Amino acid sequence: MEPGIRLSTLCLLLCLGPVSGFGVDPSLQIDVLSELQLGGSTEGVRQVPGLHNGSKAFLFPDTSRNVKASPETAEIFFQKLRNKCEFTILVTLKQARLNSGVILSIHHLDHRYLELESSGHRNEIRLHYRSGSHRSHTEVFPYILADDKWHRLSLAISASHLILHVDCNKIYERVVEKPFMDLPLGTTFWLGQRNTAHGYFKGIMQDVQLLVMPQGFISQCPDLNRTCPTCNDFHGLVQKIMELQDILAKTSAKLSQAEQRMNKLDQCYCERTCTMKGTTYREFESWTDGCKNCTCMNGSVHCEALICPLADCPLNSALAYVDGKCCKECQSVCVFEGRTYFEGQRETVYSSSGDCVLFECKDHKMQRIPKDSCTPLNCPESQQIPLSHSCCKVCKGHDFCTEGHSCMEHSVCRNLEDRAVCSCRDGFRALREDNAYCEDIDECAEGRHYCRENTVCVNTPGSFMCVCKTGYIRIDDYSCTEHDECVTNQHNCDENALCFNTVGGHNCVCKPGYTGNGTICKAFCKDGCRNGGACIASNVCACPQGFTGPSCETDIDECGTGRHSCANDTVCFNLDGGYDCRCPHGKNCTGDCIHEGKIKHNGQIWVLENDRCSVCSCQNGYVMCRRMVCDCQNPTVDLFCCPECDPRLSSQCLHQSGELSYNSGDSWIQNCQQCRCLQGEVDCWPLPCPEVDCEFSVLPESECCPRCVTDPCQADTIRNDITKTCLDETNVIRFTGSSWIKHGTECTLCQCKNGHVCCSVDPQCLQEL
Predict the structure, then answer these.
(1) Based on CB atoms within 10 Å of each CB, which residue in 98, 208, 476, 673 is the most buried?
(2) Which segments of 639-747 are extended strands (E)?
């Protein structure tokens, strides 16, 4: 199993948390329709009623249009998306039947960095993107979105983990190549089309949003469970492990050199020193660090809270804090209007006429001093805040912290309306009443932690962590267990349920859209399925032939609607779920057929359920099927099945290069995709490639499908096997997929490929030396 698949499996199994509400940080949100400012002046687009009245909805008709973000607006979008690998696309839409159109597209020249497309011709949703190897990828999701009905669509991506929701039902979940969002300058953003000539979406769109976060579908469907952490978190952990391997290799080499030097110093006495904040202290040396007394003992720094001495201040002075010192010291004071002020402290007094007078404590007296010249304010008078130490007002929201503050280590400056104050960071407590100095809270020693069974609490700066005891595995942040029954598949959960490991057991929870106790989960339809219909998904009934409706409650009258194929010598009688062709009394009607378990009468003609362009007939007991004959002279010919019969110029298509035009029904290959012109719309889908069942494969330039190779160093795609490791030049074990700079070089990059070490020199690195 590949590491990406293992990580995605962990993503699904580790966490479960019900979400009662979900708010989105505006800095992580792109409201596309609002930012593009669509309205009456936008050619080819007009506002119409939407699925709800909470936001504007716009109709994208079959007319020429140019819905494209300006370079300035596009750059605002891209600043949020650039180099991000966690984001969610949200859209509420109603797409015209058989339309194949682009919902949104972010591309530069021919490179589609992110494009979401819905094909009504092939009944599928497509995601086009580029990966870190600078290759184009297309993910195809079979689903009918172009049915002229309202749908809420969500596509969430977290590194290589992708989830597609439609109408709050999880439709697909896949492990894909990690998207590459290094958007270059000149990248464009289009809505409802790929460019001015191709990919026109036909229908209504509402609530088009990009959220720079995983699991953004919760903002569209807040009742869905949010799983945590995301797969991007796991990928980050894997990357950190690889980085630590590289550090380990370099550290091992340094340790080897250090051991050689230390062997020569065995007979020497070395005094152990301590280093703190860039300063080195000798053994038993003491010093003051903020509000702590510290001592170097046996190479370690030991600190304890400073105890301030009691001071007896002389007349006209009092204890006050001094910048850079922890304890209060005697400072000269002034008494003014019953209040005490320290040397240099200022106070404003307003006269009866409203004039401001500024006083300052000097030499035990409050002395009047000239007012400062005030800078003009760019805010209304109602937003101006008076200050107690200055005759100049400030605007509401003024940043006092940038003017200087006394907040020291583990303390941060926070702005109030008329001054700045200090506040201890989370996990720290104040050492002084003004919060200028703070110390770490040891949650473990004070019992202020949440570590549960089989864990050991370890204090960290500002927090704590729960470490599993030896031989135990983690369930969540606070508890561990001896055995993970979900990972080892030793559980009794239904295939439509999620397994969650617990201490001493596991829990089974049915997936959304299914009901049951977890060990048995069945699809749930709110109103049930009648007349033999089967509930196949959440509120989706599969109706038997002859019935229709959301719950299969309506019988189809084939006789009254003419949807029967009774021969001229028979009479049609409607039945529940079908019809019967009965012979008049005294006549002989024989030759019925059996097709897919159903009776078809002699002479009956029907269209295949899964192929509207193929027709079958019953002829004297034999079923004969063929493609529909295209009679272009027939004015009622189905242009979907016979696009070559469409003579309209509007049904022609323009090639992607703009140099060729095609008639409806024509096909061609472009950039490893099969393209077809159908009634003026170009629809392209990836060329099918044969399965490559090998350990190493490569995709040569100018070819569309990968091929197997035996040399791992030539391969660009590897079926990773994490059980195969490599031994680098310093005898450090490397996991497959990890890379490192070869020891003793600067430009030689090595990589572990399923037990094989492959190294190459970076020419650009050599030029920079």
Answers:
(1) 208
(2) 653-654, 661-662, 667-670, 673-678, 681-686, 696-698, 707-708, 717-718, 725-727, 733-735, 739-741
